[in-house]
From TrEMBL:
<dbReference type="InterPro" id="IPR036695">
    <property type="entry name" value="Arg-tRNA-synth_N_sf"/>
</dbReference>
<dbReference type="Pfam" id="PF00750">
    <property type="entry name" value="tRNA-synt_1d"/>
</dbReference>
<dbReference type="GO" id="GO:0004814">
    <property type="term" value="F:arginine-tRNA ligase activity"/>
</dbReference>
<comment type="similarity">
    <text>Belongs to the class-I aminoacyl-tRNA synthetase family.</text>
</comment>
<keyword id="KW-0963">Cytoplasm</keyword>
<keyword id="KW-0030">Aminoacyl-tRNA synthetase</keyword>
<keyword id="KW-0436">Ligase</keyword>
<keyword id="KW-0648">Protein biosynthesis</keyword>
<feature type="short sequence motif" description="'HIGH' region">
    <location>
        <begin position="129"/>
        <end position="139"/>
    </location>
</feature>
<dbReference type="InterPro" id="IPR035684">
    <property type="entry name" value="ArgRS_core"/>
</dbReference>
<keyword id="KW-0547">Nucleotide-binding</keyword>
<dbReference type="Pfam" id="PF05746">
    <property type="entry name" value="DALR_1"/>
</dbReference>
<dbReference type="InterPro" id="IPR008909">
    <property type="entry name" value="DALR_anticod-bd"/>
</dbReference>
<comment type="subunit">
    <text>Monomer.</text>
</comment>
<dbReference type="InterPro" id="IPR001412">
    <property type="entry name" value="aa-tRNA-synth_I_CS"/>
</dbReference>
<dbReference type="GO" id="GO:0005524">
    <property type="term" value="F:ATP binding"/>
</dbReference>
<protein>
    <recommendedName>
        <fullName>Arginine--tRNA ligase</fullName>
        <ecNumber>6.1.1.19</ecNumber>
    </recommendedName>
</protein>
Length: 589
């Protein structure tokens, strides 16, 4: 049963306006009341303005009629309705309605936020680094954005299937295995060198050496090709070697995931190799359905929707002319599996925007094959590039790719400096742990607070600042509220007295707190976590404005109790929101 939770005040107003609209004219049933937050009142409804033309009435007249039908009886939820401008309605809620809402959210361990995705299976493909290669800056955004979406959908009740589509299959492994075989003196296992991360750095370097050898030495190239065939045929020794390389790489990915605090576990590792045995069937099905066709010995899907620069249809390579399968083949088998076996209701693919065409073609083919139907949602969740301080795609000073671990170290060092400056007496081990949470949080927040499609610059100094729209600022806002609550005495239960009049800053804060569920609806609809980040930032500022003008600890009862309730709800909402971004909310900072 989908749980609806506490109906947001916005929803309450929406219902009231809709009902009034129908009383004015029955044909308005189902029309959008167009309610939103307003600067001049708690909410504003624009329905009259929108519907006036169609109903051949002056907007002001229509607005007045709706206002009259909104009838404000004693004790009703609405306190004031006023027509304004050409046909807006300004709507204020009764103070008690807002306090009751605060109390209802506080009483619920999910803050009254419903689980509207209950019963829906959402498959999220994210992170997906490549085996025998180090995770680099290019894997940061997919990992962070994908994880936040997994958290948001999970919180909303969806049955989330995380898939880490590891690049663990392909001809490059034949080359690497052959090279390792011919160089038994090489040491690269975690057990032989200091960490899983360095094992994968070593493999990455060995892979490059193998590649160079392959290009320079024809006989080695032949032996490497034979090794690829052996791997594909399932030759026991070769497969064991491959498994070893995959296992070592997975350890290194695990170390990054643990540090980033993402949800991915080894159970989520479903690499390209998993689909190997489904490839032949997938091709057969596409051919028999007439979706894929022969082209000079290769099997391809020719797009009916996209043409290339030459005017020819864009091509998806289903099987190469030498019988081999590639990236396209695997994604076709994967989408088929996720729909027909996993029974996904929604599929998300979190990869950078350069793969847009690839996914567009995969989705088109899946639709033509009848796997993808209109009841299944499918999205390529694409994103922009991380830039360096010079505004160009991020590279090391030497022009190489930036290792993800180095990037995280830089951010944690930045956070350590600002936290140490603010808390000079903090013992070293506490400083370490706070700096780690603040630094990692800063990296995630810098990413998630930027609109996905935009590029952004990786700037450890700016992103770990205590002021401005940063993760550290939000963690600090949360920690400060916790400290107020500690001073209030942990035992103070939050009892809300609904008859107390609301101060303007209390009202702003309470209305902001009530908006969280609505923002999560938006994040789920648009797949844009920056909406949640922006919401939390506004919430933290609403809290500051409240705290500046409404003393909490020294206020007389029952005002004090109500304000403490607002503090509780603010701290819990911030912590919950940060958690949905995958960011820790330490008690102190
Ligand atoms: N391994 C790929 C890369 O590093 C990303 C895979 C994304 N997922 C997918 N189903 N194609 O670029």
């Amino acid at each position: 049963m989908p749980s609806t939770g506490v109906v947001p005040l916005l929803g309450l107003v929406r219902i009231a306006v809709s009902e009034a609209m129908v009383r004015v004219r029955p044909e308005f049933a189902g029309a959008d009341p167009a309610v939103r937050r307003s600067e001049r009142a708690d909410f504003q409804a624009d329905a009259a303005l929108r519907l006036a033309r169609k109903s051949r009435t002056a907007p002001a007249e229509l607005a007045a009629a709706i206002a009259a039908e909104l009838g404000l009886a004693d004790g009703s939820a609405l306190a004031a309705v006023e027509r304004s401008g050409p046909g807006f309605l300004n709507i204020d809620l009764a103070d008690h309605t807002i306090w009751e809402q605060v109390a209802a959210r506080l009483a619920d361990d999910r803050l009254g936020m419903g689980a509207p995705e209950t019963g829906r299976r959402v498959v999220i493909d994210y992170s997906a680094p490549n085996v025998a290669k180090e995770m680099h800056v290019g894997h940061l955004r997919t990992t962070i954005i994908g994880d936040s979406l997994a958290r948001v959908f999970g919180f909303r009740g969806a049955d989330v299937v995380r898939v880490n589509h590891l690049g663990d299959w392909g001809t490059q492994f034949g080359m690497l295995i052959q090279y390792l075989d011919e160089h038994p003196e090489l040491r690269w296992h975690t057990a032989e060198i200091d960490s899983a991360t360095s094992a994968v750095s070593a493999l990455d370097a060995l892979y490059k050496a193998a590649r160079a050898r392959f290009d320079a030495d024809g006989e080695f190239a032949d032996r490497a090709r034979t090794r690829v065939v052996a791997l594909q045929r399932g030759d026991a020794d070769t497969v064991a070697r491959w498994r070893d390389i995959v296992a070592e790489s997975e350890k290194a990915f695990g170390a990054i995931y643990a540090r980033l605090g993402v949800l991915l576990t080894p159970d989520d590792y479903v690499g390209e190799s998993f689909y190997n045995e489904m490839l032949a069937d997938t091709v057969d099905e596409l051919v028999s359905k007439g979706v894929a066709v022969d082209s000079d010995g290769a099997v391809v899907v020719l797009s009916e929707q996209v043409t290339g620069p030459d005017g020819e249809p864009a091509v998806l390579m289903v099987r190469k002319s030498d019988g081999g399968y590639g990236y396209d083949s695997t994604d076709l088998a994967a989408i088929r599996y996720r729909i027909t076996e996993l029974r996904a209701d929604r599929l998300l693919y979190v990869t950078d925007s350069r793969q847009s065409l690839h996914f567009r073609l995969v989705f088109e083919a899946a639709r033509r094959a009848g796997w993808l139907t209109d009841t299944i949602g499918v999205d390529h969740v694409s994103y922009g590039t991380i830039l360096g301080p010079d505004g160009k795609p991020f590279k090391t000073r030497a022009g190489g790719t930036v290792r993800l671990m180095d990037l995280l170290d830089d951010a944690v060092a930045g956070a350590r400096a600002v936290v140490a400056e603010k808390n000079p007496d903090l013992p070293a081990h506490e400083l370490d742990s706070i700096a780690e949470q603040a630094g990692i949080g800063a990296v995630k927040y810098a990413d998630l607070s930027t609109s996905r499609v935009k590029d952004y610059s990786f700037d450890p100094v700016r992103m770990t600042a205590f002021n401005g729209n940063t993760g550290v600022y939000l963690q600090y806002a949360h920690a400060r509220i916790r400290s107020i609550l500690r001073r209030a005495g942990e035992s103070t239960a939050a009892v809300v007295e609904a008859a107390v009049p609301l101060e303007p800053a209390e009202r702003e804060l309470a209305l902001a707190l009530d908006g969280c569920a609505t923002v999560l609806d938006e994040v789920a609809a648009t797949l844009e976590p920056h909406r949640l980040a922006g919401y939390l930032y506004d919430l933290a500022r609403a809290f500051t404005a409240f705290y500046d003008s409404c003393p909490v600890l020294v206020a007389p009862e029952p005002v004090r109790g109500n304000r403490i309730a607002l503090c509780h709800l603010a701290a819990r909402t911030l912590a919950q929101g940060l958690d949905l971004l995958g960011i820790a909310a330490p008690q102190r900072l």
